[in-house]
Amino acid sequence: MTSADQYLIKEQPYYRPVGNEIELFEAAYAARMPVMLKGPTGCGKTRFIEFMAWKLKRPLITVACNEDMTASDLVGRFLLDVTGTRWQDGPLTTAARIGAICYLDEVVEARQDTTVVIHPLTDHRRTLPLDKKGELVHAHPDFQLVISYNPGYQNLLKDLKQSTKQRFGALDFNYPNTEVETEVIIHETGVDAKVAEKLVQIAHRARNLKGHGLDEGISTRLLVYAGQLIAKGVEPRAACQMTLVRPLTDDPDMRDTLDAAVATFF
Ligand SMILES: Nc1ncnc2c1ncn2[C@@H]1O[C@H](COP(=O)(O)OP(=O)(O)OP(=O)(O)O)[C@@H](O)[C@H]1O
Ligand SMILES: [Mg+2]
């Protein structure tokens, strides 16, 4: 038996609210409504769900979804061992049994035949059929399903079906405003306000280039990386090139443009 304890978040994660997302999520949890967290990479979705699991005192089971993932990876499978075959619950089944919050990260990466296994858990049935085992799991009253979703990355062939999307309430996430993002960087890295503000301004420049040569702007996560290097004594320009520019683009012209933006601040 898996103990719920190991999935509990013991220390309060640092999460700086951006709007009323904490209250909305609490209400959704009270209704056991499945929730979708939408937003670009590195804007705080994972941190938010860790914070909410801590606040609600629920275990959190996270699954990183990918296109090779099968329904068995979520639900469970029979394993062979010396004594014969043994059933092993997958993370979704474990979460449903112990009353955890199950966070399916990047769910759109999973194939649609995998995604549909969550359907009976997300409506009034709150059940999970383990077909191979011949068991119908009734979700624990505290169980909740949460997925993350990165709008814009997927093409039409790779999107969630409406019948999946419409089983969730959704919260929009984005990079925080200047004041909040500066605060986050200071807290996460220990750099001073002046440095943090410059990092945020560089990010704003780059975010304006989204769709004009950049697929995605500089995330809050990358700003935190930059701050961490600077706090370790790395010269700011080198730190920014390594964390804010090189990861973002392979295009030499775009790299020069971003390097120039860095040079105007540091
Ligand atoms: N509101 C916030 N409060 C505290 N930290 C934040 C906040 N927003 C962003 N961060 C910082 O940004 C980092 C990246 O956030 P996180 O890992 O939650 O991104 P994500 O949205 O889950 O990205 P991905 O889609 O790539 O998984 C965090 O480690 C944290 O340092
Ligand atoms: Mg994440």
Note down, in words, how this protein is organized:
- The chain is an alpha/beta fold and 266 residues long.
- 40% of the residues lie in helices and 17% in strands.
- The chain has helices at residues 21-30, 45-56, 71-75, 91-98, 112-115, 162-165, 178-189, 193-207, 220-231, 236-245, 252-265; strands at residues 35-38, 60-64, 76-81, 84-89, 101-105, 127-130, 135-138, 144-149, 169-172.
- The strands form three sheets. It has a five-stranded parallel sheet with strand order 2-5-8-1-9, with helices on both faces. A two-stranded antiparallel sheet has the order 3-4. Strands 6-7 form a two-stranded antiparallel sheet.
- Helix 7 packs across helix 8 (193-207).
- The longest helix has 15 residues, at 193-207.
- The mean pLDDT is 94.
- It binds adenosine-5'-triphosphate and magnesium ion.
